[in-house]
Design goal:
The protein is an alpha+beta fold and 85 residues long. The protein has helices spanning 4-9, 24-36, and strands spanning 19-21, 54-57, 62-67, 70-71, 79-80. It has two helices and five strands, in the order H-E-H-E-E-E-E. Strands 1, 2, 3, 4 and 5 form a five-stranded antiparallel sheet that branches. The radius of gyration is 12 Å and the shape is globular. The N and C termini lie far apart (26 Å).
Length: 85
């Protein structure tokens, strides 16, 4: 997962809000929506690969995926959590 010293300096590139590590329950909800085929990123791409880790913006609205221990901090790659059921 993301090193704590890196997490301490990372912020959302859009709002500059702090980030926290996504918990297991949230990742299960995200992947449940992904399996239903209803999950898209902010760039409009439907997601097909399970999200194993992520960083959540402090307002809880957006998740930035972490792939191979690297946070993907691009706005278009972020996942709006409001679309989950």
């Amino acid at each position: 997962m993301v090193d704590q010293s890196l997490l301490d300096i990372l912020v959302c590139p859009e709002t500059k809000q702090p980030l926290r590590v996504a918990d297991v329950a949230l990742l299960e909800r995200v992947n449940g929506s992904l399996r239903k085929g209803t999950l898209t990123n902010r760039g409009g791409q439907r997601l097909a690969t399970p999200v194993e880790a992520g960083l959540v913006r402090s307002d809880g609205a957006v998740l930035y995926p972490v792939r191979d221990d690297i946070p993907i901090m691009l706005i278009d790659e972020s996942i709006p959590l409001s679309q989950m059921q």
